[in-house]
Design a protein that fits this description.
It contains 2 helices and 8 strands. By secondary structure, it is of the alpha/beta class.
């Protein structure tokens, strides 16, 4: 069992809408290296962030909170997103000292990626 150190106010749990939880699990594991619990549609991501894919709510295609996930290298992240079935929407572009881009995951959720530092 993993021991978690969680601080008050820290984002720690997500429920991500999914049309096909297994497909979404493969996508996030491939692109971001999230640890997947195969028997359940759940995951553990770096920084004590964990959660599950849910089928009881529609994907966040427009509006609502936007999830931003860190990548080491923007161009590699974009290649992996495309190869895993994601669709680039916007970017990459500079946003202060970082690069950002948005994409749709296989279920249609709009998600962002961010790389610290302004190079791609």
């Amino acid at each position: 069992m993993t021991t978690r150190t969680i601080q008050h106010g820290q984002l720690t749990y997500l429920q991500i809408p999914a049309v096909n939880p297994s497909e979404s699990a493969r996508f996030y594991a491939h692109v971001f290296g999230w640890k997947i619990e195969r028997d359940h549609p759940s995951f553990e991501a770096p920084g004590n962030l964990f959660g599950q894919w849910v089928t009881d709510r529609p994907a966040a295609r427009d509006g609502g909170p936007l999830l931003w996930i860190a990548v080491d290298r923007m161009e590699q992240g974009l290649r992996e997103i495309g190869a895993a079935g994601g669709q680039l929407l916007e970017g990459p572009s500079a946003d202060g000292p970082r690069m950002i881009a948005t994409f749709r995951d296989p279920s249609g959720n709009v998600v962002g990626i961010v790389q610290e530092g302004a190079s791609t």
